[in-house]
Protein 1
Amino acid sequence: MAERADRRLPRRWIISAVTVSLAGVATAALGATRGGDHDETGPAPSPSPASPIPTTPAVDRIDQARTRIKAYLQRYDGHLAVAALDRQGAAAVAVGSRRFETASIVKVNILAALLLRQQPPGKALGSETRRLAEAMIVSSDNDAAVALWQKIQGFRGLTAANRTLGLRETTANSHWGLTTTTAADQLRLLSALTSPTGPLTPQDRTFIMGLMKKVIPEQRWGVTAARVPANSSVYVKNGWDTVDADGGRWLVNSIGRVVEPGHDWLIAVLSDHHANQQEGIRAVERAATFVLKELRAATAGDGPSQS
């Protein structure tokens, strides 16, 4: 598939907790995922007190995993970046600060912007708007994206919403698919979409995650490859396109969530400069699998914190 009235949102929605550093995911981003209630689409929290701050050996293992992930990505010469965190623990990593065109992963951002405009907050979308939202996410329908892009007032509306969502490295473009972003900023977006302390209502969070869980089978590649076989739930949105400025080579992006026993992973993998789409998909899937394998190993034996 080829992917090609600004109003200020209420100040009380401004999210300050969801922050991610380029050198790694800051502790504030982890804190933003540990609110008093729980995300209806993920595992319910235990009534027991939160686990203590991880010991130094655990942090060292994560640093070692980050080093191995950096070495793994070096083979792509800057054309691949990843960011991941565990909403149930302290594992977090972000490698690669390059800005990539979003292609269709921006459709999740468009839907978040649309929901933030609802008054009162959490008000259900109209039947036609809801149909468009489902088509835009579940089957990556471009016509639906154009219609909703107009509803949020284009790049102005997306820019305003991103201030509320805590995004710092995403630049909206008048053509939505040419919006640029970083892996760290996509992790900020996923954090905002899943955090009980974020700007979206529980109903809105459930709606977005529900659509990402229903993506059609032929588009369920990407970060889904990092799931473990049993007892896991996967939420995904992918983007792919050719880049004129790169001689028609392919960009392939994947963002999503993998919920499994003991972990609730948020992960973003962005890439470009591929000879074809399948090459890009393989690179993204291998990177996602490698990152979560490393982070699982780094946290093996650590009790999960409560989300």
Protein 2
Amino acid sequence: MAEIKNHSKSKNHNIILLYIILFFSCTSLIIINYITITILSTSRAYINGESHYSKGQNKASRHLITYLYTENDKSWKSFNEELSVPLGDQLARIALTHNLDDSIAKKGFRAGRNKEGDLDDLIWVFKNFNTVPFLKRAIYEWKNADKLVNQLHEMGVEVHEKIKSGTLDEKTKHELSSKINSLCEKLGVAADKFSNIVGDGTREIKGILIVINIFFILIIISCASIYYVITLKKIIASEKDISSKKEQLHDIIKDLEKTKIELSTEIIQHKKLIGTISHDIKSPLKYLVMTNKYIYEESKNYNDVKFKKNTKSVYSSTLQLYNFIDSLLTYSKIFFEGKSSENLDYYLKELVQTKCNLFHDIAEASNNVLVNEIDKNVKTKINKDILSVILHNILDNAIKHTERGVVKVYSHVKNKKLYLVVEDSGKGFKEEDLIYYNQLSNEQSDEKLILRNNGMGLHMVVELIQILNGDLKFYSEGGKGSKIEIITDLN
């Protein structure tokens, strides 16, 4: 069992590890792709910036040559405007190289005619990746180009001063023009190197990105495949477990069917036993009761008081025994055979009177009076057999514990509930018995026939009242009689 638990824990740890690797791979893939896309986008922005840089210095060179030969102030102004583009990019490079405020770098990039949306990426890439080989070489070429731009700017200032001072002759013009063209050629070479380096770097990054993507995708596919295999193994194991449990269940069902057959056989035997008891015990008892009744009736013709008393006692005892056996057999039929009367309307008073008649001689033997105070109009559908057994045992208990008193039965109906009461003026319940029976009734235990000193009659009553979904209440005061209240639905 411990090995199975350890194996299960090991599998869970493997799955957790797979989730961690999968999460790390996906996160890394997203971050690397984001960084790579940003670098590629910024590389495009740097190439676009270089295009503006080259155009700016080329136009500035043309305007300077025009200004050299025409001495037109408009050309001078255009020269300065166009030259401000590479000078702006130079300002941005210097600010980023020396870790100056980003606002200075942005001012330079704006002057270099870079798009506003690219400024943050241009700064971020420069700061974080300036040591990457291809970008480092590109920055070096950018720096060399800036030196040439500064020379062009100095040459422009020289031309402007000579024109203003009137010291510019034809020979000087040709010399300066040649120098300007040479600078343009050098700047073109530097610009081409910058573009090529950035372009090659971009392609290199794309290649690396493809390899990294393939690597992480393979990790993700591997994790997913391993997870699929583990899950598949679990499913197969579960199917085997279900199949095993199915077989066990099939065996249990077979055992239950066998038990059912055995129980059915046992029930049949119980039915036969009940039939035997009915025939072998009840019939002789009935005959004995009739005989004792006859002897008791005949004893009245004699003047022997002791003889009369003994025959009366024998008759009462045999009658009580017969009634008890009859009640017990009815109880057994209800529980073992499920036999009981159909729920048809009947008058409650008639049922109570039948029982009173049954106990008349026994009550008379104890000098008790039986009183039936049930309203003759009360009709009910309460199971007649069950109510008959309940009433029989309660009356028997009341008469048994009462001498020279009154036992009366009465009822009332409230909210479609029947309250049937058997009250006596006997010695009543002991306090511990009263608590016991009320508790037994409230708990409605499923245990059958838990015997106590008072016998099993009231236990049968408690069990049978459960079948009617009713309730029992026990009331008593020491030496002042007792009262048992049967509460159940009227219909």
Protein 3
Amino acid sequence: MLSRLTRPQALAVCALPVVALLATAALAPLPFSVAQPGLTADVLGENRGEPVITIKGAPTHETSGQLRMTTIEATGPDAGVHLGDVIGGWFDTDRAVMPRDAVYPSGDDVQEIEQYNEEQMRESQDTAATAALDHLNLDPADVDVDLRLEDVGGPSAGLLFSLGIIDKLAAGDLTGGKVVAGTGTITTGGKVGPVGGVPLKTQAARRDGATVFLVPKAECSDAQAELPKGLRLIPVTTLDGAVDALDALRSGKGEVPTC
């Protein structure tokens, strides 16, 4: 014989599966990564005691100021990101929740990802050197550019590498003594491409003293969303445009683009 359940008892019994499902969802790993502002590095300076940019075959000039490439740090592809991490990341301006495939497009194997990112960095460095020398009308066969930056992968430092090479080879001074940061891929033809993670990169830049941030124009709205106080955005679409903008900023002559 079945006893008769009161309404509160019936609701409690029905709620048990729901609670179990919520608990399972909270503990289950999700296909996201939680990212935060990463390191920045001055491409005009040194990394681990060695110059980031070494040039042979052409005279170089002293530079002032800094050109800082920016990064983000993200939880690994095999890390257990759970519902609580995702919710916390949504409400924390110092962190961002990103689809894992957007952060690690090459898969889940850590060793393969590291190799992929290293290859992307090497290709980015070669492309950056080609774009910079083309901008200066210098023959790559006559000028040897070596770029060294440890513990950083991916192609997003391309624009800053190109600007660093130009600053060392061209007469004048791109930064005007300022700490300039930025991000963006570069093609051999000098086109600047979007990279992702820009709001976190602007935070890293401001943390490390930058007052100017070069951003791919397509990502202006992302950069403006959580722009740190005291950081000026300059949108760029080409390497030539980035050089012109910095020249105008330094000299006070000409137009400096804004988002």
Protein 4
Amino acid sequence: MNCWVLQGDDGVTLVDAGLAAPGLERALRRLGIAPRDVVRVLLTHGHPDHAGGLARLRRAGTDSEVRVGAADLATVQGEAPQPDSDPSTRLGRLFNRLPPPPGFGELEPTPDATALTEGDELDLVGGVRVVETPGHSPGHVAFHLPAHDLVIGGDALFNVFSLRPAPGFLCSDVPANLRAVATIADLAPGTLALAHGSAVTGDVAGRLRELASQAG
């Protein structure tokens, strides 16, 4: 599980916060960052392995603002449950009937979280543009950093053992997630950073278009 640190003039912006476990705080300390240095957290989506660490981070001393895609906002605020997996897949139907693995489902509400929407431009590290990429979750977003030729793509794709779209049983809408892969391909980043697995470089757009077409 990868999180990202964006160091700006006003402090640290964290992209995703991991599980409700101590790992994030230890990783920040190794970078010389204290929780109070984190001024904002941008979430690619509201799943517990991306938003679960928010409560620990705040208890450790940050009063950072938290922002998440609009369709995941109610989940992060504690007003809606986690979305079901796409019932069109057999594993998705099974996953919907099972309890979450221990530790994974812990997500304390963040009532003051606010929404990100398509095209929002954030004045950070040369500019961060919000790109709606629903499918893995209803409100999944990617972050495009044109000045750095970088997209932070969250869970739209996994790069564990091989590069592939997010597994269908982990998606709320499998066809939408494939469209999200194509959306990221259209951005043609030099580097695609993903939450699960290593970053992708070298003909990112071509590789993503091929994956989307094969899966479709």
